[in-house]
């Protein structure tokens, strides 16, 4: 079994061969046998010995002590001096390099081997302490880095949430300002339109009551009446959109309200071969019952119009989570195109729509400090969600 690597620096050939034999007998590896100072550092750099046996008097510009001082500065390699010089001056100089041994020639094999073993053991303990210290420092650094990383991740998430909330608030404020402006303009226009519209309606009703009127003219009058009714509906929705009105809250069972709406829409659902499913929990909520009913009617009617001709299904279900009551309306219709615009006033995908049903619904839910949102829309599934705060007890 091979042992540690040893570099021999000795200018006497016979002594160096004896040293080599002593080391080989104990399975140590002799990396080099050198006699001059110039080649020592180069050999160390290439072969990295574990221990150096250093003669003090060697060839070259530097003696063994000077080379040992250089080794001490650059490498953590123990040095054992082998010398015939026992002068006080040399010993004092040698102490500076902190050697692991100072053996006097001629070298005793047992003393040499014992010095090597003690030196290697001492160096092993020294290296282990350094390694343990470094490992401990590394572990502490890793822990600090891990803790700091967790802190940064948490702060980044908080920052992302704050930025998202701020963006949503800014968008909501901008939208509210736009809606307020549209509402004021719409109210003025609706007021100006209503009076002449009522006049047109009264006169067409009178004309339609005349007995001797040609069929062609009667059809024209019916077209006028139909358009007047459509405009009247639009005016009513515009006024409703511009006037939020007071919210009259009361406690009522939401499942019962859905059953009432289901009964009210039963003829329309049967006409469209649709199935309305009430999976809402029996839960008492605190809200404006009539206004919430208006919102639900609007959403369910929209779903009915989007259903396929057969096997149409509208499921209404609920959950309570994190202080919120959530009501979902899901249908298996064709989905919504340009879904990002559905809450914009006057945007509609229907040929006879006003584009105010969903904006009015959104205003009503916001008056309840709630949220109405489109959770999903695609071919075969559209889901709306109404989220209302639970009443604090």
Task: Describe the protein's architecture and organization.
This protein is of the alpha/beta class and 393 residues long. Among the domains are: 5-107, Rossmann fold (3-Layer(aba) Sandwich), CATH 3.40.50.2300; 246-393, Histidine kinase-like ATPase, C-terminal domain (Heat Shock Protein 90, 2-Layer Sandwich), CATH 3.30.565. It has helices at 13-25, 40-47, 64-74, 88-96, 109-208, 215-242, 254-264, 266-271, 289-306, 357-367; strands at 5-9, 29-34, 51-55, 79-83, 101-104, 250-253, 274-279, 284-287, 312-321, 324-331, 371-378, 381-389. The longest helix has 100 residues, at 109-208. The radius of gyration is 48 Å and the shape is rod-shaped. The two termini are 82 Å apart. The model has no long low-confidence stretch (mean pLDDT 85).
C-alpha termini separation: 82 Å
The count of β-strands is: 12
Strand order of the largest sheet: 2-1-3-4-5
Overall 3D geometry? rod-shaped
What's the name of the CATH homologous superfamily of the domain at 246-393?
Histidine kinase-like ATPase, C-terminal domain
> What ranges have pLDDT less than 50 throughout 5 or more consecutive residues?
none
CATH architecture of the domain at 246-393: 2-Layer Sandwich
As a percent range, the share of helical residues equals: 40-55%
Q: What does the secondary structure layout of this molecule look like, with pairings?
A:
Layout: E1 5-9, H1 13-25, E2 29-34, H2 40-47, E3 51-55, H3 64-74, E4 79-83, H4 88-96, E5 101-104, H5 109-208, H6 215-242, E6 250-253, H7 254-264, H8 266-271, E7 274-279, E8 284-287, H9 289-306, E9 312-321, E10 324-331, H10 357-367, E11 371-378, E12 381-389
Parallel strand pairs: 1-2, 1-3, 3-4, 4-5, 7-9
Antiparallel strand pairs: 6-8, 9-10, 10-12, 11-12
């Amino acid at each position: 079994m091979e042992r540690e690597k040893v570099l021999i620096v000795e200018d006497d050939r016979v002594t160096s061969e004896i040293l080599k034999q002593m080391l080989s007998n104990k399975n140590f590896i002799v990396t080099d046998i050198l006699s001059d100072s110039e080649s020592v550092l180069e050999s160390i750099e290439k072969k990295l010995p574990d221990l150096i046996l250093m003669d003090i008097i060697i060839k070259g510009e530097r003696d063994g002590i000077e080379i040992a001082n250089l080794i001490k500065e650059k490498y953590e390699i123990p040095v054992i001096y082998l010398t015939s010089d026992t002068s006080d001056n040399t010993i004092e100089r040698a102490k500076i390099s902190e050697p692991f041994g100072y053996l006097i020639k001629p070298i005793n094999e047992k003393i040499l081997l014992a010095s090597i073993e003690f030196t290697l053991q001492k160096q092993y303990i020294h290296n282990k302490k350094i390694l343990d210290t470094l490992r401990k420092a590394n572990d502490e650094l890793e822990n600090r880095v891990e803790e700091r990383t967790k802190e940064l991740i948490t702060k980044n998430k908080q920052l992302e949430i704050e930025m998202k909330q701020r963006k949503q608030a800014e968008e909501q404020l901008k939208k509210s300002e736009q809606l307020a402006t549209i509402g004021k303009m719409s109210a003025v226009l609706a007021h100006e339109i209503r009076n002449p519209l009522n006049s047109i309606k009264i006169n067409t009703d009178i004309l339609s009551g005349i007995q001797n009127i040609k069929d062609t003219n009667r059809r024209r009058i019916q077209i006028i009446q139909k358009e007047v009714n459509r405009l009247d509906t639009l005016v009513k929705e515009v006024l409703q959109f511009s006037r939020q009105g007071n919210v009259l809250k009361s406690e009522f069972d939401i499942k019962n309200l859905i059953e009432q709406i289901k009964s009210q829409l039963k003829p329309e659902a049967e006409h469209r071969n649709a199935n309305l499913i009430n999976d809402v929990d029996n839960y008492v909520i605190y809200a404006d019952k009539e206004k919430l009913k208006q919102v639900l009617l609007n959403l369910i009617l929209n779903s009915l119009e989007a259903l396929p001709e057969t096997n149409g299904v509208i499921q209404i279900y609920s959950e309570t989570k994190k202080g919120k009551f959530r009501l979902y309306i899901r249908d298996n219709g064709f989905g919504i195109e340009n879904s990002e615009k559905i809450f914009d006033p006057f945007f509609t995908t229907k040929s006879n729509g006003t584009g105010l049903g969903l904006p009015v619904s959104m205003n009503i839910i916001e008056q309840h400090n709630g949220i109405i949102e489109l959770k999903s829309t695609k071919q075969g599934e559209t889901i709306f969600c109404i989220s209302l705060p639970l009443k604090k007890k």
